[in-house]
Specification:
Six copies of one chain form a homohexamer. By secondary structure, chain A is α/β, with parallel strands linked by helices. Chain A is 34% helix and 22% strand. In chain A, a hairpin with an 8-residue loop joins β7 and β8. In chain A, α1 packs across α9, α9 runs antiparallel to α10 and α10 packs across α11. Chain A is globular and about 45 Å long. Chains in contact: A-B, A-C, A-E, A-F, B-C, B-D, B-E, C-D, C-F, D-E, D-F, E-F. At the D-E interface, β8 of D face β15 and α10 of E. β3 of chain C pairs antiparallel with β3 of chain F, so a sheet runs across the interface.
């Protein structure tokens, strides 16, 4: 299998049990998650040699976070230790007409206070077959954006393909700042991943006649978004996930994958949601897996969409699922019959 | 914000975890709830100065009940302490074709054994802007009915608007007894709230051609019910909630609000239910909030229906939700997208 | 009420809490279940004198298993103690597009290593009104198949009706072996129960033009399956349950019941699933109950289908539900309104 | 083994998890317990055919209570169903210098509202080898005292030995009332059991120079108490348990057993307490077991003390322990080494 | 009762369940605590009108923290809302030879980033009978030290007694810095509270010949520490708690209370610890209660020591116990017998 | 740090929560443990590169077991996958006078059915600095004994030191069989570890005048046992752990370490036990760590005893503790004061 490196922030996720609201909780489920960590973990579950690179505090909380990743087979040997805290996000699960709610407490985290000297990319990327990051990472601060730039420049020098999930976060930066910084990083990116809102928020590229708040997504509009992105930045391919939010409990889920020449539209799943966090990340991991294992674009897209549909039936950020299980769904068996 | 007083019984609610049946439970979630307490709590969450009046035993169980209300901002300083026990209701959550099941153990509770001397309504209602009670309260016994009458007479004297939720409980009294007692209280009520069955059960006023057991509710029929009620008792307005029970897990939910002159029909929600108990109470609280904050009838109705749709996605009797969150749903955003 | 004897294996069922995957679980819910035990328990809940016969290890785990059955009213006095272990099955609950997953660890169990001398059927079946077993029991080994044959021969001698649920398990034996062994037992069976796949797997009798993986089941095809079975083995009646698997969370559920002369098709339920394990067993128990209490075929079928629809809303293998509750659903009340 | 009948009240016990105070609890462990039920259950664990007689409400809470007893092998077939509620006691576990705390909510229970006609003692006591009750039972009301008197008169008529645990409860009656009522029952009692305070509270028979609040108990004083009791009421034997309360977490535990001729003093255990409720009941069960299996007084006493020391290391009211395990401790092995 | 104001930081406390280590935890119990909040809460439990003043973020986590205090009767109406986060401390419970472990994550909290303008002390302290703070508060930063100085100057102006618990925290500041800042605040303090190490750490005043790590504490040495403190700062009284740490599970616990003229030495408890956090705070609250209710010094000291011994048998930071319960222990009943 | 290889069986451990008995449990904590796995994990926590070698089934249960080890830093890359099941042991925690209870269900496990061809020791032991196994491994069957012999012969060839913990298990083999098989392995062992009973059970070498059931252990006697062992088998050193079982909750704990020339006796700890399983394994890991890091015998012994005293305060088989934490206790700080 392949060697993949991802870089970014991982946070402690504190979630009330079940469908309790924050005010009702007397305990929090202690989970961990972050865009690039989620991708690395999903790839490790698919059998790859995937390493996640970040900076964690040298205390028991940082150890616990590393252990959780290690448990699921992520290579954690490249993680830098230092800084004073692990970022936190509190996550309350919604249901039906009540949306999920996230409260961030991530300022001052070990990775947000890292410096360029903390990471030796030449060493980190030796033997790598792929590098992945998201738009959250440069949003953590100019220092982290600079580290990300170091990483992808090194990857480019070594001929390592780079994927990026745009992942716009309004709490971290403005659309303007995001647009400027991300535009500077895009030249080093081969495969761009985005959700139905990101391209608009970051680059002002909007799908015409689409009102996402009502769950009606026009595939046609997003083909044009992809085409514009490819034209502007020269990506090898652009994938856009399309979530139709009927309620907090039920979503439509599909995606498109476009190159300069063609566009594939995936099957569409209606998912009864267990935990939607990490859906986009699991899509990215599926796409990378498909690409690295030589699937064609259409097949890789179906694998990625099936992987991320399955993720949304699994608790936590992490897509604890094997490539075989994903392939079975991608091949059409969505009946949910017991596997004995 | 306004000062609201509600009066009635609050019980300890013992619920098996998740979807376990009573016979499977080795522990009970310890919650509290009761019609008027639920209304006060919801109004406190909306930012009002809401006090709940009752009688609680002077022991650790009574303390725990008071603390729970206090936690969510209810003014508990007017609660009388005495009597020997807190009433209990055991509540098993249904799912799909299996209905929820309630076993009452409320006889002999502190409030059911209270006397008129326990409550000084002139003192309790000083500074009040609204008084609310339900049909459960007079059903607890002639002594409690007399206390309720004291309360609403005092409210009338002070010019405080009174709302009443009919809330017929067949375990507490017969339709005949209910009809007689409630008819004596109605002259003091300004705003009447009822569900799709109450008016028939208590006053024999039935919506024509409606078979609620099959989930088909005729709005037209209920307009006539409201008109009859207004005509008979002179209410300023009558609100009727309309539950379409497809199953224990999925319900349609809407309401109408009628005055002598007009009738408003609300939007209809299909709710995937987390906990339906307290749905009617949260509707009442929403209606009172809308009225007290100067919304027109149509807007107040939409606020009330949205509030009570949200309640049914929240565990327990209490509607732990802010006015902002309700307004967002009432304004049309039911997509359930994550709020960050 | 009647005296029913069932015979087979019961296992410890270890399930991750909620929707967690095996790899995420730090604890397992400890449940018990097995086809014939489930039937006996359901019949005990309906008020019958139902005994389950098996062999359990003489240790604390065997005691706990016996206690669990005893708690729900099953007569456990005929259980033989001996052998070295209780079989186990690990069961992970699926959701939406993710199927449930079962890992068996049942080899070498006390019942699988039992011998014919362990069971005195003449004694066990004294006073019995009915005997029930499933196709899992003879699949445990030739020794257990021989014990089962002893049982049904004795039943035949005593004039006790025998029901059998085909219940093919591919992990235990091949279709060929199953076909041969089961064909030897069928002459002693009066009522045969099967799901939509069993007759094909065990006897090669397939419903034409039915693709169960897409959830479209042709009633017509299954009538012919039933007719063929009756013709071949001379059963008094054949019941076939028809599961339409839309997803792991939502299934269609109905059944047919055929005799040599007529075929009844049941109402069809769409069930939002809490736990689908034991669905077939609860159908069997419902059918036996209907027959023993003198319902006609059509009514017995509706009772059985309602019972098994309810089972799928209850956690665990066991159908903890009374005959009254089943009758209410069979009579048409599927609204899920709270029962107070 | 022997057939033992016990009669009295069983309650739902609601306990905060672990060492939480009532005010901190968001759930209660749902246990069941009551003096005579505890004795029956312990005897069933020792292998006897033990039946518990009471009256339980005919609802799901009553069913759950019966099931719990049935699970542990108690014969529940003689339980009468009726009345409106199961009595409750809330029980908060103390630790170290903080005492355990019990809040009773038992008024109006099914057994407290039973009538003499509910119980056919001639039928109930057929085949019985022993009858047991406690002083709590007649304290429930004159009606229940009358039922108890019916029971022991019938037992006397049939020549069935009767044991009684004095078990004074100050919340149920005054010392004066207790003294009068119990004095009327004592003539039918063969074996009296009491703790270090009961004889004083009920009959005013006090051990000289003993200050139980400081944990110093004079064996000599209690021999005299026993002698006085035997003299006054003609018991065959009197057993007195001696608890030395150093703290809520650590107690000394021993007992004496006296007849008209001799007095045996048991070994003394220092127990690190898991749950002390039911300690006296498990002593009674041990003594009955010892007597019924033909142990001499000294050995029966040691068995009873060991049984009750073990009880206090087990959660809940029930002494879930086998006669073998008790015998091992009684024989001197208190090392706590792992049993493999 | 009296009106008491306390001021400082409250944090979210995340604790692994039971005795799990951080690395083993998959969930955290969500508690709240902080020196001055703990004191206010304990005083509210004793029946006083106690308000806690702090700054909390205006989000759901801040709301939950406020609610928790409100639940236990603390007046939270003076809490300022603003800032970006609630401070956190992770707390792992030790056992026997394994010490408890605390990881702080409190930097940047709402209170640590507050400014003097946030608090109007003239308004806050109107009607106050007592003001309390600890040495942790000025350690949060020069801005917070300035706010504390504002508070105690205002208290002095209004003639409100001030108590201070030295509470040295080495993670927040150095002994030198602490000594300088605290010396500037001491002139406004009437009652000083310290543990066996604080005076040494902050002011370099050491008890001669005491080796606290071996659990042998010389009362004589601490009398001299108190005398030196009184001499240097002119306190009305000085109380020093004396913890003898035999292990993480068992501690000796006592205290001395000295004025310029006399010194009282309390009874000494050996406590089997449930949760030792908040022991010092509950002592302070007990002392304030004793003083405000007119106990003499000796009695107030015994009340305070008993209160804090009890605290250590209660989970969490908060001393959920009534004045009656404390008085019972202070009066000598440490037997732990069940209170019914 | 060093590279250590351990080889043996790891099992799923199913434990009732808290102090519940098996019959009371409705869930099991799912833990994993086994002598050699425990040693590898402890060494990984101390910072070593420790690999555990075994055979695990290629299913989700085997994956979960591997993940658990991987989480705590054990190198699991040498684990062979195959066979049909993971062995299980059910473990009920005792308290006070009630002993812990273990029920094994380990027959037919993947490792017990392994063959010599499954393990390439030349490959496995490349770069290894130490090899460790226990007497449980050869007890699993002649095939596994042969594999163990292959391992230690290869180690001898490569000059890798070998340690063995005798660990006699009466459920797996007789003393005679154990004596014969172990005698054949001892020539390859450099460091022998045993508890106070093993040498007697396996080799018939008994400490004179020692009655372990009463918790009085003569150090002198064990020195002679060690001397005899060294004489007979030529070990470089022999360590014997000495457990004084006062009760299931409190044990004395110490050890001796002898070479041909000298004997060191460790400090003795009295441990309040959280979980005593794995105590001996953590001692072994401590001794290996001490030896590999160049401590002298006395210091290594103290480190090992401190490590294993700490283990008994930690839930589960695994000693989740750092070398620093152990050193702090070994250096004398047993006060249990909070570490901030």
């Amino acid at each position: 299998m392949a060697r993949i490196i991802t870089f970014g922030e991982i946070m402690l996720r504190l979630s009330p049990p079940g469908y309790l609201r924050f005010e009702q909780a007397r305990s929090f489920d202690a989970l961990y998650g972050g865009g690039e960590a989620n991708v690395a973990l999903s790839l490790a579950q698919f059998g790859h040699d995937a390493a996640f690179v970040t900076r964690l505090p040298a205390n028991a909380i940082g150890d616990s976070c590393r252990n959780e990743l290690r448990q699921y087979g992520v290579d954690t040997s490249l993680i830098v230790r230092g800084g004073s805290r692990l970022g936190i996000y509190y996550c309350e699960k919604g249901a039906s007409v009540r949306p999920s709610k996230v409260v961030y407490d991530r300022a001052g985290s070990a990775i947000a206070t890292a410096s360029r000297e903390d990471f030796d990319w030449d060493h980190i990327l030796r033997d790598a077959d792929w590098f992945h990051f998201t738009g959250i990472t440069p949003a953590l601060g100019d220092n982290v954006a600079a580290i990300a730039l170091d990483a992808i420049r090194t990857a480019r020098d070594k001929g390592i393909p780079v994927s990026c999930d745009l992942n716009y976060r309004k709490n971290l930066w403005s659309p303007e700042k995001a647009g400027t910084v991300m535009a500077g990083l895009m030249p080093y990116v081969d495969v761009l991943i985005a959700n139905e809102e990101d391209a608009d928020k970051v680059f002002g590229i909007r799908a015409a006649e689409t009102d996402i708040s009502h769950g009606n997504l026009s595939t046609e509009g997003y083909r044009k978004v992809a085409a514009t992105l490819i034209e502007r930045f020269g990506f090898r391919s652009v994938a856009i996930t399309l979530r139709e939010s009927y309620s907090a409990s039920e979503n439509g889920w599909s995606a498109i994958l476009c190159t300069a020449r063609t566009c594939h539209v995936s099957r569409r799943y209606v998912v009864h949601i267990v935990d939607r966090v990490g859906g986009g990340d699991s899509f990215g991991a599926g796409l990378i897996h498909g690409t690295l294992t030589g699937m064609g674009d259409a097949q890789a897209l179906e694998f990625a969409v099936a992987a991320s549909a399955l993720k949304q039936t699994i608790e936590g950020d992490f897509n604890i699922i094997s490539a075989d299980e994903v392939s079975r769904l991608a091949a059409g068996d969505a009946s949910g019959r017991v596997q004995r």
